[in-house]
From TrEMBL:
This protein's record includes keyword Manganese: yes
The protein's name in its UniProt record: Germin-like protein
GO cellular component: apoplast
Subcellular location: Secreted, Extracellular space, Apoplast
Family designation: Belongs to the germin family.
PANTHER family in alphabetical order: GERMIN-LIKE PROTEIN SUBFAMILY 3 MEMBER 3 (PTHR31238)
Domain Cupin type-1: 64-210
Annotated Pfam families: Cupin_1
Main location: secreted
Organism: Musa balbisiana (Banana)
Record's signal peptide: 1-29
InterPro entries xref list: Cupin_1, Germin, Germin_Mn-BS, RmlC-like_jellyroll, RmlC_Cupin_sf
Length: 220
């Protein structure tokens, strides 16, 4: 050291022991094959805690829901069947998940974001008009046909619209076991935020805001 003092041997040994413990901990983490989510406890930003390996079964790694059509008899004429960690505990900690998207004729998945992950959409039936808006407000949209794939970067506003006359179906994958979802229209008009505030932040008039609140179930 600059003042001529040396590090005491006990301090050096303590630091070395700490380093070894950290290396062993990291090695054990890398050697862990999986971390099936223990859904009986609350989720955390880091995911669910791991289920005891002795309690893990093959069913934890299998999800069958994507083979069945979703119910599109709703306001947007679309349905999303998620295979996120809450439905599919085997994806916990793996940085992946999936979903099925069904959009009936004239159906739409309105502008929305997934704050927790990027999305990859693969069309397996029908025709879908899809696109996203970047943070620079640049617009990227196109018409996707059977076999086409499009990616939507994490956090970007994006949409899907049925562009044909038959139900469109797509399989979607995400770069997160829990990508999250916020639909812009519902965030603005399906809550109790007072109408004058909504009008102020959207530049819409009172009649338009109250009509949208009524349609989407908001109040205030």
């Amino acid at each position: 050291m600059a003042d001529g003092r040396t590090t005491p041997p006990c301090v050096f040994l303590s630091l070395l022991l700490l380093l070894l413990l950290l290396l062993l901990s990291a090695a054990n983490g890398l050697m862990q094959d999986f971390c099936v989510g223990e859904l009986s406890v609350s989720d955390t930003p880091a995911g669910y805690p791991c289920k005891e390996v002795s309690a893990v079964t093959c069913d934890d790694f299998v999800f069958t829901g994507l083979g069945m059509p979703g119910d599109t008899s709703n306001l947007i004429k679309a349905a999303v069947t998620p295979a996120f960690v809450s439905q599919f505990p085997g994806v916990n900690g793996l940085g992946i998940s999936a979903a099925r998207l069904d959009i009936a004729p004239d159906g739409v998945v309105p502008l929305h974001t997934h704050p927790g992950g990027s999305e990859l959409l693969f069309v397996i039936e029908g025709t879908i008009c899809a696109g996203f808006i970047s943070s620079a407000n640049d617009v990227y949209y196109t018409t996707l046909n059977k076999g086409d794939t499009m990616v939507f970067p994490q956090g970007q506003l994006h949409f899907q619209i049925n562009a044909g006359d038959v139900t469109a179906v797509a399989i979607v994958s995400f770069s997160s076991p829990n990508p999250g979802l916020q639909i812009t229209a519902f965030a603005l008009f399906a809550n109790s935020l007072p109408s004058p505030l909504v009008e102020k932040v959207t530049f819409l008039d009172d009649e338009q805001v109250k009509k949208l609140k009524q349609v989407l179930g908001g109040s205030g």
